[in-house]
Structure formats: structure tokens, C-alpha cells
Design brief:
By secondary structure, this protein is of the alpha+beta class. Helices cover about 35% and strands about 25% of the residues. The protein contains ten helices and 20 strands. A five-stranded antiparallel β-sheet has the order 2-1-11-10-9, sandwiched between helices. Strands 15-16-20-19-18 form a five-stranded antiparallel β-sheet. A hairpin with a 2-residue loop joins strand 19 and strand 20 (about 380-385). Helix 2 (about 115-125) crosses helix 3 (about 130-140) and helix 3 (about 130-140) crosses helix 4. The longest helix has about 55 residues, at about 410-465.
Length: about 475
């Protein structure tokens, strides 16, 4: 099946975890001696290297060149530039570099086959002439296609891979490495058609005007249940064997949610007394696969249900704090010897950085901090911390707070002082007014009294005269 990218921690400071940078993977060596010149075992989704042996040692590319040959054809067909069902006529020029040691399927000049049948013939049937014909059909010439192959691997960052032909027939100038083969195969496994072709145990072509159907059995014996090399988790791969380069392998296996790519270059064949043989490229690849599946697993370090910390909340209704949880799961590929509790959680609460107070209301999911996972001094990534619940505002407390805040402010203090002075002035004016008014009233009263007395005296005098 097509590789699916496993969920990787989404971080606020680190957008994704680049597990390939971690070194704890190779803590346990699968076995003392590996019967190969170089090898690599890595997790397909993340690129994390679990085991390596001379991964950058240059080695004859051999038939593994067919991986890039097929991948470019798949990419071209996916782009719509060619049609898988179109018939392609075999040319004499496609046979130009065939020799007695070349693997072919006898597709002779003039015979027409569909492009899809040619792709199966080249990869599953190891037909070198089909590789050349595909190259001519897509690029116009074998030479142009080889240039495309070299440009393609260079763009992938494979600095130690170079091709001289489409099919891997030995050429001293043609080489690759275990690391580069991993990078190439990892890219190839992201294309469904490549996955289909590379993982087909056997294939039969359509009958042509000049040939009956051809039936191919995949050279990767891990697909064959009738051999001792049969390995059920292996779903894609390719083997190679030459006198100069020995026996090699590249392939993909999946088990219990773990996806691994293994490359073994430069193994040999062991002959036994009963004339049986053992191909070490396949036995060593199986050992590496099995070690990877038993030694490593995806582990959940944090999940959204975990309560990581709590922070105080001011003026919360019925709550003085809120719990913090990760906003996403954190899954890491780890050696089974690693204990989850050994991870150190470096927690940062954003409000604490500036000595700020968190006031209600707080909404569930609101980002309040972050946590960084650290193991043996190595940071594995950072994930956001969010509020686990809603915290409503305590309204009465909030009003009291607002009043207290207003009263405690310097502006409010100045206003109160001004009002106090105005009030004092007003009171003073009122008192002064009342004093003046009382004086005036007393004067009026005295004047009335004096006038009354004068009138009274006048009346008395008048009465005396009348007598």
C-alpha cells in the first residue's frame, strides 16, 4: 500500500519533529557481524535511522538502478505526459548495450507492448531491454533518460549515486550507497503505482502479435511463499546480483504500524555441502527487519487527556485555577528500552514570563503555555498547552475589582481630591452665606424692633396729649 505519513507532533516552536536527528536509535546492535559491505535500516515515515553500517560507502548500483528507472516512468505517467495503455514498439537501439550477461525477456524489435507491461517487464521481469525502451519512449533516448535519472537523485540530495545506464548493468563509473538507496526508495514508496509494481509477486503480460503472454516471478524471494526467504511483512523490494557488486537488496516492510526500509549492499552467497545455498542479502535484510520490529515501537508520550499543569485564575466563578493539557498527541518512535517516565517536561506558562495575572473568563482550548519534551538532554519537540475547561467570570467579584481598581488609580485619586476641595469650598460658601444671612436677618429684626418701639413711643405721646 502507499506509505501514509504517521501523525507527528505539531508544535508551536518546532513545526515537526525530525526524528532522524536522534541518536538513541542505535543503542542496541542487532548482531555482532552483518554479512554485508554496507547497510541501513530506517523508519519510512520519519526517516529515523535505526541501524547503519558504512551507509556512505560507494558500491556498484547494479540492478538497484531499476528503482530510479521505474520511479521516473511512474512520475511521468502520473503527470499525464504518457499513457500506461499506449503501445510502444521495441527498437533495435534499445538493445545497444545488451551482452551475454544481460538479463532480458526477449522483447524483440518490432514487437509492441503497452507501457505498463514494459514497466512490469523491466522491474519484475528484470528485462534490461525494457528499461532502455521505456527511456527512449519518455526521454527520446537512453542517454537523455540517464541524465534525468542523475538529475533526479541529485535533487533528492543523493550525492553518492551516479548512473551510466538505465538498468544497472555493471559499469565502474556507476555507483550508489546504502543511505542514498534509502532516500530513493523512501521517495518511491510515496507513489501508488510504484508500490503496486514493486510489490507484485508475479505478473503476466498481454499477448502481443509476435509473442505469447510472458509470466514473470519477482526476483525478490521474500515474496515467494515457496522459499525459505519468504517474509510476510515485506511488501515491496528489489534484489540485485553481480560478480562485481555481490548480492544486494532494498525493500519495504510493515508490521504493527511500523514501516521500515532496509538496504543491504555487497552480501555474498554461502554454499552448503548439500549443494544448497543461502543468499545473505535476504537473510541479513530479514534480520534487520525483525530487529527493527521487535526493538522499536511508536509510543504515546503525551495525549490531549493528560493533565500537565495548572495555573491560577483570578475572579473565576467557582474555580481558582484551570488545568492545562496538550493540544495534540505526541507520538515518538522509540527504542523499547526507553521509559516514558524518563522524559523531562519543560513547562512554560506564558503569563508567568511577564508576571501577568490570568483573569476569568477562560475558554477551553485557549493557549496558555507550552511543554518541551527532553530526554538525555535532547529536545524531542514542543507542544502547546491549552485550558482543559471553561472558567466563567464571577461577576460580583469583577464589579468589586473594577471599583477597587478605579479607586486605587492615580487619576481617580486626583479627581476625588478635586471633588473634596470643591465640596469643602462649597460648604465654606454655604456657611459664609448663612452667616451673612443671619447677620442681615438680625439687622432687619433689630430695625423692625426699633421701628416698632418708635411707633409705640409716638402712640404713647399722642395719648398723653389727648388727655
Amino acid at each position: 500500500m502507499v506509505l501514509m505519513k504517521k501523525f507527528v507532533i505539531v508544535a508551536v516552536l518546532i513545526p515537526s519533529i525530525l526524528l532522524s536527528t536522534q541518536s538513541n536509535a542505535t543503542a542496541v546492535i542487532p548482531f555482532r557481524n552483518l554479512a554485508a559491505a554496507s547497510a541501513i535500516l530506517a523508519e519510512a515515515d520519519t526517516g529515523m535511522v535505526l541501524f547503519e553500517l558504512n551507509k556512505n560507502l560507494r558500491h556498484p548500483a547494479d540492478a538497484l538502478a531499476k528503482v530510479v528507472m521505474l520511479l521516473l516512468a511512474v512520475i511521468t505517467s502520473d503527470s499525464g505526459m504518457v499513457d500506461l495503455s499506449e503501445l510502444v514498439e521495441m527498437t533495435e537501439s534499445a538493445w545497444f548495450d545488451m551482452n551475454p550477461l544481460s538479463t532480458t525477456q526477449g522483447i524483440m524489435p518490432g514487437e509492441e507492448m503497452s507501457l505498463l507491461d514494459l514497466m512490469f517487464s523491466a522491474y519484475v521481469g528484470s528485462a534490461n531491454e525494457a528499461c532502455n525502451l521505456i527511456a527512449e519512449h519518455i526521454a527520446g533516448s537512453v542517454e537523455a533518460y540517464v541524465i534525468m535519472m542523475n538529475n533526479f537523485v541529485r535533487d533528492l540530495g543523493c550525492e553518492n549515486t551516479y548512473f551510466m545506464n538505465t538498468h544497472g548493468q555493471y559499469d565502474v563509473r556507476q555507483y550508489t550507497t546504502a543511505h542514498d538507496q534509502f532516500v530513493i526508495y523512501r521517495e518511491a514508496m510515496s507513489y501508488p503505482l510504484f508500490v503496486e509494481i514493486s510489490g507484485t509477486p508475479s505478473y503476466s503480460t498481454e499477448t502481443t502479435e509476435t509473442s505469447e503472454s510472458r509470466r514473470f516471478v519477482h526476483p525478490n524471494s521474500m515474496f515467494n511463499s515457496n522459499t525459505k526467504y519468504h517474509y510476510r511483512p515485506n511488501t515491496s523490494g528489489l534484489t540485485s546480483a553481480t560478480y562485481e557488486g555481490g548480492y544486494s537488496y532494498v525493500g519495504y516492510s510493515e508490521s504493527d504500524g511500523l514501516s521500515l526500509i532496509c538496504v543491504v549492499l555487497g552480501s555474498d552467497v554461502v554454499m552448503f555441502e548439500d549443494d544448497s545455498a543461502e543468499m545473505r542479502n535476504l537473510t541479513e535484510a530479514q534480520k534487520l527487519f525483525e530487529w527493527g520490529f521487535t526493538q522499536f515501537a511508536w509510543r504515546t508520550i503525551l495525549s490531549p487527556s493528560d493533565l500537565v499543569d495548572r495555573v491560577p485564575i483570578t475572579h473565576g466563578a467557582g474555580a481558582d485555577f484551570v488545568n492545562l493539557r496538550p493540544d495534540s498527541s505526541v507520538e515518538l518512535l522509540l527504542n523499547n528500552d526507553v521509559k516514558i517516565e524518563d522524559f523531562v517536561k519543560n513547562i512554560i506558562i506564558y503569563s508567568a514570563l511577564n508576571d501577568e495575572i490570568i483573569y476569568a473568563p477562560v475558554s477551553a482550548g485557549e493557549v496558555l503555555g507550552e511543554v518541551t519534551l527532553i530526554l538525555d538532554g535532547v529536545e524531542y519537540g514542543t507542544v502547546l498547552l491549552v485550558a482543559s475547561t471553561n472558567i466563567e467570570l464571577h461577576r460580583l467579584e469583577f464589579i468589586r475589582m473594577q471599583i477597587a481598581a478605579v479607586l486605587s488609580s492615580s487619576i481617580a485619586h486626583n479627581i476625588i481630591m478635586v471633588l473634596a476641595l470643591l465640596l469643602a469650598g462649597y460648604i465654606g460658601l454655604v456657611i459664609r452665606y448663612n452667616v451673612i444671612r443671619q447677620k442681615r436677618l438680625r439687622k432687619i429684626a433689630n430695625a423692625k424692633k426699633k421701628l416698632h418701639e418708635e411707633r409705640q413711643n409716638t402712640n404713647n405721646e399722642s395719648d398723653e396729649r389727648d388727655k
